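Study this pair:
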Amino acid sequence: MTRTWTPGTPDEALAALARTPRLLIALDFDGTASEFAVDPMSARAVPGVAAAVDRLAALPETRVAYVSGRSMQHLRIIVEHGDHSPIALAGSHGAEYWLPGAGAADPVDTPEDAALRESVWAGIAQLLAAYPGIRFERKTYGVGIHSRGADPVVAEQAFAAVDAYMAEDAPQWRRRTGNEILEFSSQTAGKDAAIARLRASFDATAVLFAGDDTTDEDALRVMGPGDLGVRVGAGETAASLRVADPTEMGELLAALADERRARRE
């Protein structure tokens, strides 16, 4: 059952996270840390989230990660992520990783996948020329088709055309949908796999994961005892807690930082 968080009130779930020996906070980016932007590359974390993430990452035995469908290259730009950042990253729904002290993991790819991807990029770019307002994104392991700001009828037609193209040319690729985006990837990993890898990498004794979209539910469904799943905004969810928007997500993270710091002093 999902309950709604009330800012400014004591919360036992946050208190329990604050007490855990080694905490991992993992956040989706778009719609969770940031508001949605018509230009996807202009998205940035809202001030409250950015400030709380910095505070949490500075605490002992506390790790913060962004877990996103964005390619690693684009994720590092929007997170404003430097080579010495303490923030871990999982991009491409858990197919790419950047870990503090280790850097980027070697990508998993084959010549056959690379050749098919080049073919798909060229084919879909040509296909979408007939659909005004629809934006095409080359991802590390696939494609993203964005309809934010486009006419809904045009978006529906474009997505149907892309579905038909992919069913013919790359039927084995994983299909995902989200907030005004259709994605296909040659990698089948999901955010559940990203949480498992990050949990193991940092030997976390508890995890907070927050997300706002259908692809985040993969991770929310694998939250275990002592973990906390947070849904940002409306929609059916496996999360145990709900906040209204990224601004309120920042308030929740700040409350967690306050409590964890108090318990560490």
Remarks:
- The chain has eight helices and 13 strands.
